[in-house]
Every structure is written in structure tokens, then in C-alpha cells.
Design brief:
Elements: H1 12-32, H2 34-45, H3 49-65, H4 67-77, H5 79-95, H6 103-120, H7 123-133, H8 138-146, H9 148-167, H10 169-190, H11 220-232, H12 235-253, H13 255-265, H14 270-295, H15 300-317, H16 325-339, H17 343-388, H18 392-408
Helix pairs in contact: 1-7, 1-8, 1-9, 1-10, 2-3, 3-6, 3-17, 4-5, 4-7, 4-11, 4-17, 5-6, 5-10, 7-8, 7-17, 8-14, 8-17, 9-10, 9-14, 11-17, 12-13, 12-17, 12-18, 13-14, 14-16, 14-17, 15-16, 15-17, 15-18, 17-18
């Protein structure tokens, strides 16, 4: 056999996955930096916290809403091109931040430009790469790439906090802008849209698989909405959407927003509470990667049911754990492992339902629903805390929702029993 005909020892899919992981990591660091800027901006410009929060809220909203449309554009114009445009938008928005003088500029730069750019290459990017480049290890690779979100927060937040204290908030913006600009040549030279571009098959395939050609004409906006309509006609997709709404409500909506205030209500210092929340990133990395490995080997519906069930139990126990820092730490460790674990099985089910080409767009819509759940829980938990003086009811309600989600996901793929015709 000719040595030149042998396949390469390292499949190029791993290089693409590494570039994707690095991109998600840096973008996560950029998205985490506004939390460090809130107090310095408030002190220097006198802007209200609600005004600063508006910019951050718009960024969060766009991060979820733009995903399905970005996935549709990736199908039409290429992943690498969309990544370059998004990174350039992020880098430009962040690099202009030090020159702000008015609050509307913060809304434009961080809310709109950074939010839109980050949303274009967030979770949908990982799903697109996993679907196109991997047949073997798809779940594991999805978990690894998505773990870049937690890794980015873990690496960037302490560094940016030290820079803010030593050099001021403007240097924080300069640092993340440089990180975004450095990614541009990496993506330009190493990123490829499909395995066919380098003369390869997806990792794990032995023969070319037929795929539906992407139409170069038409409106990507209409295509994304059409895919949503197709998904809503699917009973299994509706069940997935319900479960992902619960996922968003029980993670970034409740815990991500209200864990620190809840700790403060029970006398836990704010710095210690913030450290607990930050430590979740470490266990999130382990849990997401492990979940991806498991999703390649076991029934994804069963995995999701276990994840939601255990999350529900932890939320019900959580209000009674504040009296002991040790028991609260145990809940935080477990919750960190479970936080992003639902994503790899959800991606696998979505890909099975709609195929490689449509899966990123369909998952993008699931992320929109996820963010809606997060927004709803954040608002409702805050309202319940104001009315009732405690988070107990909010944690309990979210725990019961997770228990319901554990049942919902088991119904995926189960066809309803048709009613028997009534006798004349």
C-alpha cells in the first residue's frame, strides 16, 4: 500500500475542534467581563446600575436570539466567514469601550455589538462543528467544545479582576479586545467549513454520506423561521423545548442570578458566595465533558432524565444547606457538575431528529427557549423574594419543575397510543 494514500494520523476534525474550543473560551471571557465593569462604570460616570444592567441584559438577549439565524447563515456562507465577522464585531465593540462618554454608547457597544457577535459564535458554533466533522465521538466533542464557556470564565475572571484593580477598567477592555483580535488569524488560517474542504470524511465515516444541498438563494431569516415551524410540528421537538425551558430556568435564571443574594440573606459574605459560584466553572468543565462521553454510549433520554431529576433534588435541598458552608459547598459541587450536562444529550437527540444540516439551527431555537426560561426564572424569583421575603418558594418551585422535566424527556420518541375506534 502506498504510504501517501494512508489517512493522516491526526484527523483535521480535531484541529477544527481545537480552534472552536479556543474561540468559545475567549468569547466566554469577553462576555464575563461586564460583571467586573459594573462598579467602576457606576463610580466614574455616575450611571445607574439599571442603565448598566440594560446593556448587559440586551447582550444576554441577543446571545440567545441570534443563534438560529447565525446557524442558518453558517449553512449558506460558511462557518469560518461567520466566525471572522463575529470576532471582528466583538473586537471592535470592546476596543471602542474605553472611549465611551455616554450611557447609550455602552448599550450600543456591549449590548448590541458584543451581544450579537457572541451570540453568532456561541453554542450553535459547537453544534455545527460537531455535526459536520464528527460521527464518532460526537457527544464527547460537543461536551469538550462547550466546556470552553466554563473554562473561559475560570481563566479570564480572576485575571480581569486583577487588571481592573491594578490598571483600571479601561485596561480590562483592552485586554479582551486583544484576545479577540488575536483569534482572527487563527481562524483565518486553520478553520475550514466542512471535511470535504480538506479532502476528508467526517471522523468515523468510511463512505461519503448523502446530504441535502444548501440552497444559495433565499432569505436566511425566513429559512430559520421555517425550521422553527418544522420543529414545532414535531412532538419530540416540543418535548425537548419544554425540557430546555426548564433547564434555563433552573440554571442561569435562578442559580446564576440569585445564588449570591440568597447566600447574603443567610449571612454568607458576598466574596465567599461569589467564590462558590465561580467554583462551579471547574465542575462544569468536568460535568459537561463527562456528559458528552456518556451521550455517545447510553440512551440520551435516560441521561437527561437523570440530570433533571438530580438537579431537582439538589434545588429542593439547597434552601436547607445555607446553614452550613460545608453542605452548601457540596450542593455547589454537584450543581456545577450538572449545570451544562444537559447540552450534549440534547444536541444528540436534535441531530438524530433533524440531521446534520438542520441540527444547528434547531438547537439555536432551543437555546432561545432556554434563555426565555432563564429570564422568566430570574424575574419571578426576584419578585417572589420581594413579596415573601425568602427564596424558599422559588427554589422549591424550580426543583419541582426539574422533576417534571425528568418525566418529559422520557416521553421523547414514545409514540402516543392511538385511540381505539368506538363501536357503532
Amino acid at each position: 500500500m502506498n504510504d501517501n494514500a494512508r489517512p493522516p494520523r491526526l484527523h483535521y476534525a480535531w484541529i477544527v475542534a481545537a480552534v472552536t474550543f479556543t474561540t468559545i473560551l475567549v468569547v466566554a471571557g469577553v462576555r464575563a467581563s461586564p460583571g467586573i465593569l459594573v462598579v467602576p462604570l457606576e463610580a466614574e460616570f455616575g450611571w445607574s446600575r439599571s442603565t448598566i444592567s440594560l446593556a448587559i441584559g440586551i447582550s444576554i438577549l441577543l446571545h440567545g436570539a441570534i443563534g438560529p439565524f447565525s446557524a442558518s447563515l453558517m449553512n449558506r456562507y460558511g462557518v469560518s466567514r461567520m466566525m471572522l465577522y463575529a470576532l471582528l464585531l466583538i473586537a471592535t465593540g470592546v476596543s471602542l469601550t474605553p472611549f465611551m462618554t455616554q450611557s447609550w454608547q455602552l448599550v450600543l457597544l456591549w449590548g448590541c455589538m458584543v451581544g450579537a457577535g457572541a451570540g453568532a459564535i456561541a453554542n450553535v458554533l459547537a453544534v455545527t462543528i460537531a455535526a459536520r466533522w464528527f460521527t464518532k465521538h460526537r457527544g464527547l466533542v460537543t461536551g469538550l467544545m462547550l466546556s470552553g464557556t466554563a473554562t473561559g470564565q475560570l481563566l479570564f475572571l480572576p485575571l480581569l479582576a486583577m487588571i481592573s484593580v491594578a490598571q483600571g477598567w479601561r485596561m480590562v477592555s483592552v485586554t479582551v479586545a486583544i484576545a479577540a483580535f488575536v483569534l482572527l488569524p487563527l481562524v483565518y488560517f486553520l478553520m475550514r467549513d466542512r471535511p470535504e474542504d480538506v479532502g476528508l470524511l467526517p471522523l468515523g465515516d468510511t463512505e461519503p454520506q448523502p446530504r441535502e444541498p444548501v440552497k444559495p438563494h433565499g432569505n436566511a431569516f425566513s429559512e430559520a423561521l421555517g425550521n422553527l415551524a418544522e420543529g414545532l410540528r414535531s412532538r419530540d421537538y416540543r418535548l425537548l423545548a419544554i425540557s430546555f425551558f426548564i433547564c434555563g430556568a433552573s440554571t442561569n435564571g435562578l442559580i446564576g442570578t440569585h445564588l449570591i443574594p440568597a447566600c447574603f440573606d443567610h449571612g454568607i459574605p458576598e466574596v465567599a458566595a461569589a467564590s462558590l459560584l465561580a467554583s462551579m466553572a471547574i465542575f462544569n468543565l468536568i460535568g459537561t465533558t463527562g456528559s458528552g462521553w456518556l451521550s455517545d454510549r447510553f440512551d440520551n433520554r435516560v441521561l437527561l432524565s437523570i440530570y433533571y431529576g438530580l438537579r431537582g433534588i439538589s434545588l429542593i435541598i439547597l434552601p436547607y444547606s445555607f446553614e452550613s458552608f460545608y453542605s452548601l459547598s457540596m450542593v455547589v459541587v454537584f450543581y456545577g457538575l450538572d449545570w451544562f450536562a444537559t447540552v450534549p444529550p440534547t444536541v444528540k437527540i436534535t441531530t438524530r431528529l433533524f440531521g446534520r444540516e438542520k441540527a444547528p439551527v434547531m438547537f439555536g431555537w432551543l437555546m432561545c427557549i432556554h434563555q426565555i426560561g432563564g429570564f422568566s426564572a430570574a424575574f419571578m424569583a426576584g419578585t417572589m423574594r420581594m413579596e415573601l421575603g425568602t427564596y424558599l418558594q422559588a427554589f422549591m418551585l424550580s426543583g419541582l419543575m426539574c422533576m417534571a422535566g425528568a418525566i418529559v424527556v422520557l416521553l421523547i420518541g414514545v409514540k402516543p397510543v392511538p385511540a381505539e375506534p368506538r363501536a357503532a
